[in-house]
Amino acid sequence: SQQGEEDPQALSIQEGENATMNCSYKTSINNLQWYRQNSGRGLVHLILIRSNEREKHSGRLRVTLDTSKKSSSLLITASRAADTASYFCATLYNFNKFYFGSGTKLNVKP
Amino acid sequence: NAGVTQTPKFQVLKTGQSMTLQCAQDMNHEYMSWYRQDPGMGLRLIHYSVGAGITDQGEVPNGYNVSRSTTEDFPLRLLSAAPSQTSVYFCASSLSTGTDYEQYFGPGTRLTVT
User: Fold this and answer.
1) ∠ CA(B59), CA(B63), CA(B67), 5° rounding?
2) Which of A101, A41, A29 is nearest to A68 (CA)?
3) What is the tens place of the pLDDT at every residue in B21-63?
4) pLDDT tens sequence across A61-104
5) Does B105 contact A at CB distance below 8 Å?
6) Which whole-number Å values give the CA distances from A62 to A29, A75, B2, in the listed order?
7) How far apart are CA B35 and CA A3, in angstroms?
8) Which one of B45, B88, B109 makes the best mutation probe of the A interface by having the most chain A beta carbons within 10 Å?
9) Chain-centre distance for alpha carbon A32
């Protein structure tokens, strides 16, 4: 399987702290995307980074990509209770196949 | 725009029954896909389509059929339901294939096969 692995599986932090989650994958990719899933809901796109990019920012989100290590990290700064959700990385292969990681469950305590 | 819609929201089937999960999008997206999500796991790609009349298999296609006769609709057919197909099914679409396009997800269909 080309499905990625995410680390940690679960993360519990206080409001205001930063949250970092990591994603590893197995083969060359076209891009890597991060999605959020609130309990029982569909996924919502957060940020996309192309394979030739190393870092990208969007609001409180910062994503890095290291293609030599086949890994990515998502940093959420100044977390809020509303950030409580599961976060998934998705890698695009052959420009038309997405593979999702197993997810990190983030709990932000007020 | 309604975005990506899926019906039904919930479904219970008996082993051996067949059914079709409906997915529609009103954003004129070329790319559509179906995933299943099992408890505590990420999504796994079942089938995808890069345009009307064009479909291909994903990671876990066995037991499922798809067709894409229009840009808007991408139904998923379970041919003979098995308990192993108990899962939450998500449909997604994106404007096109390529490196720059995010996916938009439907709300999901929760399927139980007894």
Assistant:
1) 80
2) A29
3) 999 999 999 999 999 999 878 899 999 999 999 999 999 999 9
4) 999 999 999 999 999 999 999 999 999 999 998 888 999 999 99
5) yes
6) 19, 5, 30
7) 13
8) B45
9) 9
